[in-house]
Amino acid sequence: MAIPEKVAELIGRPLGEPLVWEVEGGAIRRFADAVGDSNLLYHDVEYARNSKYGEIIAPLGFHGWPMKGGLMEMMGSLMGPMMNAGYPVLLDAGIEFESFVPIRAGDVLSSYSTVTNIAEKTTKSGKGMLILTTEMNFINQNGDKALVERSSLICREL
Amino acid sequence: MAKQIYWEDVDVGTEVTPISKIATTQMLAMWAGASGDFNPLHYQESFAQSRGMPSVLVHGRLKGQWLVHLVENWIGEEGKIKKLSCQYRAEDYPRKMNSELTYEEGETWWCKGIVTQKYAQDGEHMVDCDIWVENGKGEKTTPGKATVVLPLKGAK
């Protein structure tokens, strides 16, 4: 198995068009609820408005719904070649967040993504796999870099 | 919210206050809706089995978010997470619901961490931690790292 040509040629290139994310207060609350996080900065408008943030903020990791919307679209161009090359099993492998300025309810973020690396590996049980690393940069409505999210995705043989 | 912790309070080896989590199929459904990750690996048993898993599995990203909760709870409102990363090394399987509101007996996960470095950089007072999610057998299924800024007592 090798890295499919159509996938290899994506390394270093921007993936698709920039995406726009609306960060909505209700979506932040549902997200925090799903994690079991009762932090008042995510839930209580009055409390948050009186805090140094002045508004409901999003926990690190939330940048608008659906979180993987852009990623899934972006992956659309990768999945076909991956399937054809014999790697039908797609699994998240890891994540890294780097935070710059807080993300607040009402923010509108733009993101752009690049595939930064693709590595070939073998699982413990001897199956071939590719590890794909992507980077998404999120810029807020004031032009400030808010967040960088680096994801790793495993594409492996069945 | 826990009491505010200060940079002066921590040293290499200080424990990050642990938190526990119980993953249930209901929590996975909530997470799917809240995050927008609708991969059937996380809610359809037959699909998960067709991909070689024994049953539906806990989203890696949810476990990552448990670790964000762990760190944010520890550093308090005056602290700031600068960087957080984790790897989904082993799969975790949720407890099943046995009524609308209750779930089966089974595994409880613990999110834990320890301070590995303490330093000042560019005028900020930082701490690096190793963090992880531990399954019911005490295995680290989701190891990671965090870099946080903590407030100084003097600055208060």
Helix fraction bin of chain B = 10-25%
The CATH superfamily of chain B is Hotdog Thioesterase
Overall pLDDT metric of chain A: 89
Helix content of chain A: 25-40%
User: What's the CATH H-level homologous superfamily of chain A?
Assistant: Hotdog Thioesterase
What do we call the CATH topology of chain A? Thiol Ester Dehydrase, Chain A
Average pLDDT score of chain B:
95
Q: Biggest protein-protein interface?
A: A-B, 34 and 34 residues
Please identify the top-level CATH class of chain B. Alpha Beta
How are the strands of the biggest sheet of chain B laid out side by side?
1-3-4-5-2
Class inferred from helices and paired strands of chain B: alpha+beta
CATH architectural arrangement of chain B: Roll
Query: Are there runs of chain A of 5+ residues with pLDDT below 50, and where?
Result: none
Task: Provide structural commentary.
The complex is a heterodimer of chains A (158) and B (156). Chain A is an alpha+beta fold and 158 residues long. Chain A has one domain: Hotdog Thioesterase (Thiol Ester Dehydrase, Chain A). Chain A has helices spanning 5-8, 25-35, 40-43, 45-49, 69-84; strands at 19-22, 89-99, 108-122, 128-139, 145-156. Chain A has a five-stranded antiparallel sheet. In chain A, strand 3 and strand 4 (128-139) form a beta hairpin. The mean pLDDT of chain A is 89. By secondary structure, chain B is an alpha+beta fold. Chain B has a single domain (13-149), classed as Hotdog Thioesterase (Thiol Ester Dehydrase, Chain A, Roll), CATH 3.10.129.10. Chain B has three helices and five strands. Chain B has helices at residues 25-35, 45-50, 60-75; strands at 15-21, 80-87, 109-121, 124-134, 140-149. A five-stranded antiparallel sheet of chain B has the order 1-3-4-5-2, covered by helices on one side. The mean pLDDT of chain B is 95. Chain A binds chain B through residues 27, 30-31, 33-37, 39-41, 51-52, 59-61, 65-69, 89, 91-99, 150, 152, 158, and chain B through 1, 21, 27, 30-31, 33-37, 41, 51-52, 59-62, 64-66, 68-69, 72-73, 77, 80-88. Strand 2 of chain A pairs antiparallel with strand 2 (80-87) of chain B.
